[in-house]
Structures are given as C-alpha cells and as structure tokens.
Design brief:
The complex is a heterodimer. Chain A is an alpha+beta fold. Chain A is 42% helix and 22% strand. The relative contact order of chain A is 0.25. By secondary structure, chain B is of the alpha+beta class. The chains are: A alpha+beta, B alpha+beta.
Chain lengths: 91, 372
C-alpha cells in the first residue's frame, strides 16, 4: 500500500454516521465496524475517489496532527479496510 | 400522584424527544435497561439516543446522563444496522419498480425516515411499505421481487385485504419484508378514501433514494398516519411514541395553507374525527399546541361523521363500521372472520397449535372483546 494509491469502497458497504461514530456495514455478510470521528472522516475521504496522499493533506488541514502520524493512520486504516474486504485498491 | 414505571418512562421519553431540559435533568430513578426497553417498545430507541448524544459533549456532562447516553448508544447500534439493510431493500424495490415501469409511493416510516427525520435510522421501521395503483401492478411487482429472491405470502392480517407480502432472509437471520399495497389502508373502513392518482399528484420526491422514489405529501401522510392509528387502536394496540412523533414531525412542516388543506381534505373524506383524535393524542403526549381554528373546524365536522372518534378503540364498534363500509365483500368478510384461514390463525396463535384449538382460542378472544 502506497500513498499514491486510491481505494474503492464496494456498493455492498454502507457507512452511516451515528453521533460521533461512523458505523460501516457490510451488507453482504452483516458484519459491521465502528470508527471514531477521525476514522470516520478518513473513511469518508477514502470513499470519495482521492489518493491516500490527498486524504492525508485534507486531514492535516482539518485536525491538529503531525504528517507522520496521519500518514501512518491513513495507511493502517486503508489496509484494515482491504483486509476486511470493505475496500479494494483501485487498479 | 404515583404513576406506574412505564408511564413515567414514556413521559420521560416524550420530553427527551422534544428536547426539553427537564428530561436531561431528571432521568427516572430506575435501571437504564428499563428505560431502553421502554424506548424499544415505543419504537424510539435510535431517536432517543440521538437526542441524548446531543447533550453529551464534554467531561462536564453529569455522569448519570453520560452513562445513560452510552447505554442507549450501545443498544441502538442494532437499529442502525437494521435501517441500513432496510435502505438497501428499499433501493432494490425501487429499481424493480423502475424496470417494470410501475409508479409507486413509499408509505409510513419507509418514506418519513428519508425526509422527515434527518437520518433514516432515527425512524424505526419493521418493513418497507409501498403503494401502487392496482392489484395487477402489485402482482407484477411481487413477481419481479420473486426473481430477486423474495418469497411471496398471502397477507394473513385481514380477511379482505389490499396488500401482498414478500419477504427475504438477509444477514444476521433477519427477515426483510416488503408490503405492496394497492389501497392506502388495509381495511375496508378506510381503503377507498383516496385514489392513487390524487395521492401521486401531491406526492414528494425522495431524490436521495432514486429517481423514481416518491412519498405521500405531508397532508396525506398525516391523514394516513391517523387512519393507521385508528386501525391499530381498534385491534388493541395503544398509541406508541413512534407513531405519535410522526405526527409531530409532520405538523412541524405544515404551513398555514397546508393546515387549511388538511382540514378541508379531512372534512371532505369524512376523516375529521379520525384526524382530530390522532392530532390531539400527539399534542397531549408531546405538549404540542394545535392551531385552534383548525381544531374548532374539525370538532364541528366530526360530530356529524359516521365514525365516532371517541370509540376508535372499541373493537366491536370498529368491526361493525368495517362491515358497513364493505360493499360487495360483506359475506366473504364475515365468512373469513368466522372461519379464518389456517395461515391467518398460525400467524396469531403459532403453527404448532391444532386448527380446532386455534378456532377455540379465537372464539374466546372474540367473546372477551365483545363483553369488554
């Protein structure tokens, strides 16, 4: 996984914001995942056809966080989503 | 004055939904589990959770409030997931409708959750309710849904019925049910009051759901909610906060012109009493002020209507009114009332009970209802 990659969220994965939490549901098998405010925002940006580097830039503008930390968080979350088949790397 | 716990809980929930400070300052001194159970019974768990979350922002939040909000939040997660499955099911039905070239209107919570509540999960729905123009269109859609994996059932709810039920198993052992109606209400008492065309003419678009997604306009949605409530009362269901809060949400979007139209349509369709009863119940439960001139008009008209609004919860009276409303199906209705189908009895008494025992239970229940 590289910062120049883009990820795609398949149509059977649906996010919904509930208070401070973003619930991500895989409609195909009923499994769900909860993300906090930061994770929810990263997911929203990842789903909007941006490269991981673009996502990091937006996050840096919106949250008080170091570049190193946010790049690590974005890469980790993207990999976790891919591992759980909630997203795939765009070819 | 001492009140039973469930009354105290219901009042607290009503205040919470209306965003009143007293609900936050005075959380009932019972277990949070009981409050959550009542919110579930009333169909407002996710909505109550959202209201609580609005006030839990920082560490200054009183611990009891923060604790309650957390417990509600955990309990509501399943409702959020269910609403997402329901949204997927609704989108699928709308696609099937579009492919078949059939016009449809989403009803009740299936529509309100997408335009009146901000977020779909805030209005609990058990199924998807859809109105089409005719029985033929309903059958065509049901056939299309069968191709998409749905099973078709005969509605066991009413002997003379105006709906088809389709269902499909989805993840988590949940069953997704689509009710396809070809009359606004599934009881002859109210079935023919509105034509599909007049409802469609005043309908509103639900653009977020799809290009062909439409719902009843607010005036018709209020009248429908009140008719639905009257039928529920007649079968022994008490007012739930979910249904009454629909009326509050809908009343809030009415303009002065809408109120006049609501009053006019209700009077024209002989629904003034049914409407008034629903609005007054919602207003009393949530402490909401109804416009006095509209109430005065409805009170006057209701007095001369066939249905007495004070007797909506009298089973026998409402059965009699339904019988009178039937024109060509009276014998069939009566026959099916006396000798219900096995499917109908199974749905009420369980399919493990023998048919004769089911009939006996039904007879006992009918005698009890007539006497009481």
């Amino acid at each position: 996984m590289k910062l120049s990659d883009k990820v795609t969220v398949p149509s059977h994965v649906m996010p919904r914001t509930v208070g401070d939490e973003t619930v991500i549901l895989d409609l195909a098998n009923g499994s769900y995942f909860g993300l906090d405010v930061v994770g929810g925002r990263i997911f929203e940006l990842l789903a909007s056809d941006q490269t991981l580097a673009d996502v990091c830039e937006t996050m840096l503008a919106e949250f008080e966080v170091s570049r190193e930390d946010i790049e690590k968080d974005v890469l980790t979350l993207a990999q976790q989503l891919i591992d759980k088949q909630l997203a795939s790397v765009e070819a | 004055v001492l009140k039973p716990d469930f009354v105290v809980h219901k009042e607290w929930l009503a205040n919470l939904l209306m965003g009143r400070q007293e609900a936050l300052l005075r959380i009932p001194e019972t277990s949070t589990d009981d409050l959550i159970a009542e919110a579930k019974t009333q169909g407002v768990l996710a909505l109550a959770t959202e209201r609580l979350q609005q006030y839990v922002k920082d560490e200054s939040t009183p611990s009891r409030l923060a604790q309650t909000a957390r417990a509600f939040s955990d309990a509501a997660r399943e409702e959020v997931m269910w609403s997402m499955f329901l949204e997927q099911g609704t989108r699928q039905v709308l696609k099937d409708l579009e492919r078949a070239g059939i016009a449809g209107l989403l009803l009740k919570g299936s529509a309100l959750s997408y335009w009146a509540y901000g977020q779909p999960h805030l209005r609990r729905c058990n199924d998807v309710d859809l109105l089409v123009a005719s029985q033929q269109a309903a059958k065509q859609l049901a056939s299309d849904l069968e191709i998409s994996g749905f099973k078709r059932h005969q509605s066991p709810l009413e002997p003379v019925c105006f709906e088809l039920l389709c269902s499909k198993s989805i993840a988590q052992d949940w069953e997704l049910e689509i009710d396809i109606h070809w009359q606004l209400c599934n009881s002859a008492l109210f079935a023919g009051r509105f034509s599909f065309d007049e409802l469609m003419r005043d309908s509103i678009a639900l653009a977020g759901l799809g290009p062909n997604a439409r719902a009843l306009g607010p005036v018709h949605a209020i009248l429908h909610a009140c008719m639905h409530r009257a039928l529920n009362l007649a079968t022994g269901w008490e007012d739930h906060l979910k249904w009454l809060y629909d009326l509050i949400v809908l009343m809030k979007v009415l303009t002065e012109r809408d109120w006049n139209e609501l009053s006019n349509v209700a009077q024209k369709k002989e629904l003034a009493g049914v409407l008034l009863s629903g609005l007054e119940s919602a207003a009393n439960t949530f402490g909401y002020a109804l416009p006095a001139p509209v109430v005065a008009e409805l009170v006057e008209t209701a007095a001369s209507e066939r249905i007495d609004r004070a007797r909506l919860h009298h089973w026998f009276y409402m059965q009699w009114q339904t019988f009178r409303a039937l024109e060509s199906h009276r014998f069939r209705w009566l026959w099916q009332r006396l000798f219900p189908t096995q499917e109908r009895l199974n749905s009420r008494y369980g399919d493990q009970t023998h048919y004769l025992v089911q009939l006996w239970l039904r007879l006992k229940s009918a005698i009890h209802r007539v006497i009481s």
